[in-house]
Amino acid sequence: MSLVLAHGGRGPWANARCLASVELEGGPLAFRTELIDVSISPGAQLWLVAEDARVTAGEAEERPVVVWGEPALSGQLEELNLLELAFPADDPSAQGPRVSRHRAPSTRVVLLGGRPIDNAFIAPVSAAIGWRVPEGYTRLVVECGFDGSALPGDLHTRVRCVVFILGETPPADTR
Q1: Model confidence at 1, in pLDDT bands (50, 70, 90)?
Q2: Does residue 61 belong to any structural domain of this protein?
């Protein structure tokens, strides 16, 4: 299974089906997180995308960072932590926002919803990460929220965490 980095508001997921979309808000609600638990199809491309969803025009003073916490696939096989996959974060040819991964123990504590987490992708807004779902896996579970060490205080900050799937195989007819 390979990991692909993409960036910007458009990407391979432009024609994909949205499995989940949750909006995060700055200000007093910035500590709030959302748990995403969705069905996925083996062989399909799975994308986690952090989009700017501000409702007001203009540039935000802060560029928030999104944490995709404890990302895992489950199904017939043992649970798969998505951080276990090859990750080209240090690839000098990669363009766009850098996505990093966090594994505890580390010199940095990553907070999600005010609590430390062990495994996470840390992504600036407009970053996307994608994988091809391996055989035997049928669910994605991940928690999305702002990086707790730098919560956006701007009430106008809005970020959307979106999960897309592309190229899924329809379920077999059981009649």
Answers
A1: very low
A2: no
